[in-house]
Amino acid sequence: MKKAFPASPATRKRINTLLYIGAVVSFAAPIVFLAIRWIARGDAADVSGYRTPADYALMITQCVLGLLAIHLPMVLGNRFRFEVPQLLYVLFVLFLYCAIFLGEVRSFYYRVPHWDVVLHSFSSMMAGFFGTMVIAIFNRDEHAATKLAPRFVGAFSFCFGFSLGALWEIYEYILDGLFGYNMQKFALPDGTILMGHAALGDTMKDLMVDALGALIAAIVGVVTIRKGKRWLMPCLTEKSTKAPSSAAEPSDPEAVSALSAAVAEEEAAPEPEPSAFAESGSRH
Q1: Which of 54, 74, 184, 222 could be 154's S-S partner, Cβ–Cβ 3.0 to 4.6 Å?
Q2: How confident is the model over 211-235, as pLDDT tens digits?
Q3: Beta-carbon count within 10 A of 170 CB
Q4: Can you tell me the distance from the alpha carbon of 229 to that of 77, in angstroms, rounded to the nearest whole number?
């Protein structure tokens, strides 16, 4: 059976490097382009209607956040001493590319029907997979998830994935209120403000999709654990600590001389003669 990804560490490293460079370029290059377009257009919106000044500000903000998020696996991996599984890293980079570059910069959220629904389900499912990985990281045991009850691991993965989706909705609400964005789609592309139940439609739909994606991740995690698969398990690493030289031998010349003299004196000391009491005892 062929493996989904090459087993060679060098090959995996090249793939990760190419994905990293491609994502960084996709996020960094549009920042300059969007800033120039924003300044040139001023307060005027595009003819298409979905690129208002607030949209330009949102796209730049998302690109900056994408540049920060792409470093999360490396930062967290160094902090908690683990390596993200190859498949999850590829899914993570693809999600950032589809959400930020295609979704925001290329306006797929407006051009492609249900693009937001697909990404929300994908993100919550991926977060659920990371929830399974968190169990192994916090317990410092690559087999921790397999030692626990699969149902408990599945429940934790579901709660982890759904919680991140709920936090994202809070993030959208805060940015919409502070900067006048339209992340929660409370307004139509032409600027019409939705009222009442319609204004809550996008947020509630996203939460329901998040719950569905997290549930799928929990089910997949339980099945993979029961079948003994390890593609959700991280590779735990340890810090390479170098023992100080003073622990091996003293670096002070005087200390070395004193230690050598003590050893020589101990070796040259005569063995104690047996006492008369010991000799008399031995005769009996």
Answers
A1: 222
A2: 999 999 999 989 988 888 877 788 8
A3: 9
A4: 22
